[in-house]
Amino acid sequence: MAAADERWALEVGQAGDERPVLEVVGVRAGAAPGTHLVTFDGTGESVELRITARDRSAYAEGAIAAARWLVLEPRAPGLHPFDAVVDDLLSPARSTVTA
Questions:
Q1: Which residue range forms the structural domain that includes residue 42?
Q2: What is the model's pTM?
Q3: What b/e readout covers 30-55, taking b as 16+ CB neighbours within 10 angstroms?
Q4: Could you read off the pLDDT of 75-89 as tens digits, one per residue?
């Protein structure tokens, strides 16, 4: 967000110091196979998006989709961002990649 809009990049504090306006925090806790909470927290309110996995089957389906994506065509060795797999999954031109 800060890269898209410089207003999020820095603010001047009371001591005259510059600090980031946008704070990103990650916390790993609990025993559930997957509970993700994204919170947009403001001065007077918070907006939350919660995703709760009941089991690991969705993660397995994603791994299988990624493996199928890798063998569809020659790929360079190394890491590939998962958004490329998702883009192909959602693309009407690529109906051969299925989860």
A1: 6-53
A2: 0.50
A3: eeeeeeeeeeeeeeeeeeeeeeeeee
A4: 888 888 888 888 888
